[in-house]
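Lecture notes, unit on protein representations.

Consider one protein chain, 274 amino acids long.
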Amino acid sequence: MKQEIRTVKYDIQLKVEAYHFQGIMQKFPNHFHEYYVIGFIEKGQRFLSCKNNEYTIETGDLLLFNPRDNHACEQIDGKTLDYRCINIKPEIMSKVIFEITGKEYLPYFKSQVVFHSELIVVLRELHQIIMEEEKDFRKEEIFFFLLEQLIEEYTEQEVPAGNTEQSTEARVICEFLENHYMENITLDDLCKLTGLSKYYLLRSFTKQKGISPYSYLETIRIDKAKKMLEQGVLPIDVAILTGFTDQSHFSNFFKKFIGLTPKQYMNIFNDTHN
């Protein structure tokens, strides 16, 4: 069996993360990110569920996730996955968009999967340059030209203002989870907050948001944890600050979502500060 390799780099110039997973069999549960993900399948085949749509993705397919696009994926052919992606925070994307268009806005990718995209050649080249830590401006040139093409072909001008069908109860639940993620929250707490029964609350929220309330809470905790680890906060402290029972639970949970242990993720940023 092919050895599993997980490599992540943080590019100080571009201010983006680049992930390279090789020989991966890991299943990723339903979750979302607070940043854009632009990636592709280098080898392997996966079942992807994203925003209530289902796809079979394979070698050569381009993935475009907006912030908060919920998604889950797993192997379907019994073979391992090789995958590359870059992650771009909204504030960085906004600056790049202004450079390209002269307008201040956040783009919204209409398609989350582009089958057999020709742009993968460009994305692979950019990714390789980041991985090899090249310093010359070829990297920035490719980065800008790639985003220009992606914006032109696959985006609407602005991120939708939100799901117009979102109920007041769903909005209240989201705000509560985002403000109290470090606490021990129960389903009873959410029911008291909204006046809804347990089953109706779970069904209604999941239908509207595409992700269950607890999965939403998990995602918020992971996002907060990533930001703390980027700042050099030790994993044992991050575990406590983000509502986990202990460091072991936090580490297993973090790897399930991100594909790296908290320490591996923190070391990416330690390397850039040295």
